[in-house]
Amino acid sequence: MQAISTFFQDLRDVVVNLWLRDPKEKPVYINDVAVRIRAGILLFIPIYMAFTLWDAIYGSHWIVDGNTAVDTMDTDWDGNIIYAVQAIKRTYDYSLQTWLLLYALFEMLAGMTVTTSRLSPTIYIASLLAKRRPPEWKPLVPKRFAWTLGATFIAVCLVFFNPEVFAHWVNDLTGEKLLPTTEQYMPYWIPLTLVWVCLGFMWIETVLGFCVGCQIHKLLVKVGIFKEECEACNNIDWDAIARRKAERDAQQSG
Q: Omega into 27 within 30° of 0, i.e. cis?
């Protein structure tokens, strides 16, 4: 019964506060333990996209039926036997990949504010899984920058998987034919590089607890491009302060 009561208490706290220390405080702090768990949950998306892109770019663009291969009784200059086969040009349907990328984009954007965080199912799951571990409070601002990078990577991959849709949108918006609508105009190396970078960033955060995007944000703050609250304040252990205050109050009342 105690375990059930504890679970429902944790569930109630997650529904009320999510991964936030206090939804009403400014600046906003989130539990980095839950952030890493969430990154691990979402890690399967860039893994799947990496294999999809590798197959689309480097895989065979033809489907060959081995049962139709016929020996022509001839050889090429290197002595290789020449076969006549029936081959079909592969067609790619990226509907699943598109929906997964749209969901990943939604997750990146949802975590950026207190209100939209309540729309993310992975935030609820990660927050609940993190309840049994001591929280590590980190400011939301650097994480928001990191997720902005992720959202940008995802948007580029969406364009790669749906070039004609994006081309029609751009052409209709500008009134000119700026992009072709019948061919892939984005170089293959762009989405392939970005998906592996994204995979690496998420793996590092999940396994090592190191947020590359946050470090980039920190560098931009140092050079004056961004501004944020005092970094020294980010390392304050508010829970420890609260415990010490409670102990002092108890000693004084005793």
A: yes
Q: Which long-range contacts (CB under 8 A, 24 or more apart) does 155-161 make?
A: 155/105, 156/186, 156/190, 156/191, 156/194, 157/49, 157/101, 157/191, 157/194, 157/195, 158/98, 158/101, 158/102, 158/105, 159/186, 160/53, 160/184, 160/186, 160/190, 160/191, 161/94, 161/97, 161/98, 161/101
In a domain, 113, yes or no: yes
Phi, psi angles (nearest 5°) of residue 26: -130, 125
- Indicate whether 151 belongs to any domain: yes
* Total of domains in the chain: 1
E strand map for 68-223: 70-75, 81-84, 87-89, 137-139
Residue 160 contacts residue 52 (beta carbons within 8 Å): no
The structure tokens listed for 214 are 């946050």
At 62, is the secondary structure helix, strand, or coil? strand
The structure tokens listed for 26 are 């400014």
Residues in CB range of 157: below 8 A, 6 or more apart = 49, 101, 191, 194, 195
pLDDT score at 84: 77
Whether residue 208 is contained in a domain is answered as yes
Give the structural domain span for 222: 2-60+93-243
Rg (CA), the chain: 26
pLDDT along the chain (254 residues), means of 10: 70 84 87 93 92 81 69 79 73 85 95 92 93 89 91 93 90 87 87 90 89 85 71 55 73 69
